[in-house]
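From the shared-data thread, chain only:
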Amino acid sequence: MADGNQLRLQSTLTCPVCGARTTETMPTDACQYFYDCPACQTVLKPKAGDCCVFCSYGDTPCPPVQADGKGCCG
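Structure, as tokens:
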């Protein structure tokens, strides 16, 4: 989670198909429902119950979840 009140805007996504890891900057004003894996071109979508691909496949949850524990789209 965030340190103090500072949100972490970088998250490393791990593709569940090929295992490729890519660090991306998370949007702060929108949900990211889809992500194209640059290694295998699989289109990642959030897992059931998650609000975005960062919450499903990233090592850092999206900024709204960091800030208040709620999903970015809920």
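Residues 26-65 form one domain.
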